[in-house]
């Protein structure tokens, strides 16, 4: 798996490069800003790109804009975005084009190597990987929300589904059968008024769209 990475933190970039090489990945280029990233993507044609949300010169959203432009110009290039904080609007912007191959993880997730590499490979294969913390904050609701009608097992299934996991992985993590997962997901879509969809990425988009639009979300100032 050939990777281009945009990360201005030299220590983090160096650590990631060593980690990825140890897992059999080829890091074709490590660049510090959005313009250099776009040039590296055009030159190396990677299988996936890893991009920090905040890049020079303003350290606001240059990474997101570079990632979106790379996807437009290079056939929905798989992108795994890294962020220091939960910034929900960026996750929504990435998902809005309706195509797979998108991941959004907090940088703390890198320390959980197995989870990070699993997310990287899932995105490279065209899937979706949303950070559990993003999903957890979206699931935080006031009383009276339709989510209150979900059973604890259905809420657990919903959280895993929103992260981008397929039914087999959900079954494994919850230690239940595939049929039980299918039943939970059917109940979730029925209770939330969502049309059933077996396509993994569209299913994630539908769930996140519901969570993002439903009233009662508690947004910590400056994070979401």
UniProtKB/TrEMBL annotation:
Residues 2-122 form the Response regulatory domain. Residues 143-214 form the HTH luxR-type domain. CDD domains: LuxR_C_like, REC_NarL-like. The modification 4-aspartylphosphate is found at residue 52. It comes from the Bacteria. Keywords: DNA-binding, Phosphoprotein, Transcription, Transcription regulation. InterPro entries: CheY-like_superfamily, NreC/VraR/RcsB-like_REC, Sig_transdc_resp-reg_C-effctor, Sig_transdc_resp-reg_receiver, Tscrpt_reg_LuxR_C, WalR-like. Transmembrane segments: none annotated. This is Response regulator transcription factor.
């Amino acid at each position: 798996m050939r990777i281009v990475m945009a990360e201005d933190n030299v220590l983090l970039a160096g650590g990631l490069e060593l980690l990825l090489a140890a897992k059999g990945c080829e890091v074709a280029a490590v660049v510090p800003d959005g313009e250099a990233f776009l040039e590296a993507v055009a030159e190396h044609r990677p299988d996936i790109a890893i991009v920090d949300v905040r890049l020079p010169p303003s350290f606001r959203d240059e990474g997101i804009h570079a990632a979106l432009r790379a996807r437009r110009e290079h056939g929905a290039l798989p992108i795994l975005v890294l962020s220091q904080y939960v910034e929900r609007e960026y996750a929504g912007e990435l998902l809005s084009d309706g195509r797979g191959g998108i991941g959004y993880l907090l940088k703390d997730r890198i320390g959980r190597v197995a989870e990070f590499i699993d997310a990287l490979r899932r995105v490279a294969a065209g899937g979706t990987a949303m950070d559990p913390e993003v999903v957890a904050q979206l699931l935080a609701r006031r009383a009276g929300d339709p989510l209150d009608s979900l059973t604890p097992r259905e809420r657990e299934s919903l959280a895993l589904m929103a992260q981008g996991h397929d039914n087999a992985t959900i079954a494994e993590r919850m230690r239940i059968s595939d049929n039980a997962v299918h039943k939970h997901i059917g109940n979730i879509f029925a209770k939330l008024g969502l049309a059933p969809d077996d396509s993994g990425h569209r299913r994630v988009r539908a769930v996140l769209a519901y969570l993002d639009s439903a009233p009662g979300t508690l947004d910590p100032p400056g994070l979401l």
